[in-house]
């Protein structure tokens, strides 16, 4: 059984542009990860995408196949996701954090997955209220950081799609509305 989604820490410029442009709607989810154990100043970086061969989402694949617990050291994980977690992945993340009290996950998303469905709203609200997790929309600085961190070599930042700021603002407003339980 192959697992083609496990990769080195670098992705292509095309993948970052295609999958993280907040105006576009690609079919696949990419997860860029930065992990820090204890008080170390060294970060471990990795990325995965959906494992379509085995019908597994990027979040589930990362938690079950990539993450390796280390004693009881405290662990901070930052995820840059091309899509917000679906309701099932929200539950997988909650279950993971309930058994790994020493882990915090900061989730930053490029766009919201089916942002108009009640089931997705509920999943995101429950995830956001869980201990050890924060969820927010990626800001321009996050895109710049991902470009500098997850693209191989010295590449100047040139990921500025038209309507970029407007799309971020809309997604931020939608997510805040969802998390507060208000209707928009």
Could you give the topology of this structure?
Elements: H1 13-20, E1 30-37, E2 44-49, H2 58-66, E3 75-81, H3 87-99, E4 103-109, H4 118-128, E5 133-137, H5 140-150, H6 164-180
Helix pairs in contact: 3-4
Q: What would a concise description of this structure say?
A:
With 184 residues, the chain is an alpha/beta fold. The chain is 38% helix and 18% strand.
Explain what the structure shows:
The chain has six helices and five strands, in the order αββαβαβαβαα. It has 184 residues and is of the alpha/beta class. Helix 3 packs parallel to helix 4 (118-128). The longest helix has 17 residues, at 164-180. The N and C termini lie far apart (44 Å). The model is unreliable at 1-7 (pLDDT under 50).
